[in-house]
Automatic annotation (TrEMBL):
<comment type="similarity">
    <text>In the C-terminal section; belongs to the PRA-PH family.</text>
</comment>
<comment type="pathway">
    <text>Amino-acid biosynthesis; L-histidine biosynthesis; L-histidine from 5-phospho-alpha-D-ribose 1-diphosphate: step 3/9.</text>
</comment>
<keyword id="KW-0378">Hydrolase</keyword>
<dbReference type="InterPro" id="IPR021130">
    <property type="entry name" value="PRib-ATP_PPHydrolase-like"/>
</dbReference>
<keyword id="KW-0368">Histidine biosynthesis</keyword>
<keyword id="KW-0547">Nucleotide-binding</keyword>
<dbReference type="Pfam" id="PF01503">
    <property type="entry name" value="PRA-PH"/>
</dbReference>
<keyword id="KW-0511">Multifunctional enzyme</keyword>
<dbReference type="InterPro" id="IPR038019">
    <property type="entry name" value="PRib_AMP_CycHydrolase_sf"/>
</dbReference>
<keyword id="KW-0067">ATP-binding</keyword>
<keyword id="KW-0028">Amino-acid biosynthesis</keyword>
<dbReference type="GO" id="GO:0004635">
    <property type="term" value="F:phosphoribosyl-AMP cyclohydrolase activity"/>
</dbReference>
<feature type="domain" description="Phosphoribosyl-AMP cyclohydrolase">
    <location>
        <begin position="39"/>
        <end position="112"/>
    </location>
</feature>
<dbReference type="GO" id="GO:0000105">
    <property type="term" value="P:L-histidine biosynthetic process"/>
</dbReference>
<feature type="region of interest" description="Phosphoribosyl-ATP pyrophosphohydrolase">
    <location>
        <begin position="138"/>
        <end position="226"/>
    </location>
</feature>
<protein>
    <recommendedName>
        <fullName>Histidine biosynthesis bifunctional protein HisIE</fullName>
        <ecNumber>3.5.4.19</ecNumber>
        <ecNumber>3.6.1.31</ecNumber>
    </recommendedName>
</protein>
<dbReference type="Pfam" id="PF01502">
    <property type="entry name" value="PRA-CH"/>
</dbReference>
Length: 226
């Protein structure tokens, strides 16, 4: 019995997918952390089925006329985090956790050519991984803080703060505010970076303790953008 064929037969694809004339669908691939668009590829039915089954990105090569597993030879694999269709169901947005670089030219993203006059200019450098935006960094940190609040692992500093309660958290926020002011007065960029990071962390703990989401803060800040 062929196990792989059995598994494939068990994986039903969504109805109403609008494949192109060649039986393919374009796939826009996005990094889950940096939100950067990494590449544009294509899937046929089998590639989509394997992607859904395995949680790894499979594509169809139009030049080689064959399936290929991203990173199979290079090691630059893509772990699937989310897969969704656009409103016409003729394009896929694939959110992945990229290992290594996405581009065969050794750039993190395939979209590394900017337009300059009638020519192109290379953006970034080979193997340069873009920094995660501050907003996304705060989301990731807030997720960790929330899990600490729910699970209360022994020995974790965040657990200690939640166990001590609101007054302790407020005291730490006040201390970090004062230390940030001192760092700014000292005109040390390194010290400012360190103290502001401490302040942001403790503010995130405070938000978690009070049940205020980052989305609510984001909406409030956007309302002031005038």
């Amino acid at each position: 019995m062929n196990t792989s064929n059995s598994k494939e037969s068990q994986t039903q694809l969504p109805q109403g997918i609008r494949w192109n004339a060649d039986g393919l669908i374009p796939v826009v691939v996005q990094d889950v952390d940096t939100r950067e668009v990494l590449m544009l590829a294509y899937m046929n039915e089998e590639a989509l089925r394997r992607t859904l089954q395995e949680g790894r990105a499979w594509y169809y090569s139009r030049s080689r006329q064959s399936l290929w597993l991203k990173g199979e030879t290079s090691g630059h694999t893509q772990e699937v985090v989310d897969l969704r269709f656009d409103c016409d169901r003729d394009t896929i947005l694939l959110t992945v956790r990229q290992k290594g670089v996405a581009c065969h030219e050794e750039f993190y993203s395939c979209f590394h050519y900017g337009v300059q006059g009638e020519g192109y200019v290379t953006l970034g450098a080979p193997e340069e991984v873009p920094a995660i935006p501050l907003g996304r960094t705060m989301e990731l940190l807030a997720e960790v803080i929330h899990s600490r609040n729910m699970e209360r692992p022994e020995g974790a500093y965040t657990t200690y703060l939640f166990d001590k309660g609101l007054d302790k958290i407020l005291k730490k926020v006040g201390e970090e505010c004062a230390e940030t002011i001192i760092a700014a007065k000292n005109s040390s960029a390194e010290e400012i970076r360190y103290e502001v990071s401490d302040l942001i962390y403790h503010v995130l703990v405070l938000l978690e303790e009070r049940g205020v989401s980052l989305e609510a803060i984001s909406q409030e800040l956007l309302s002031r953008r005038k």
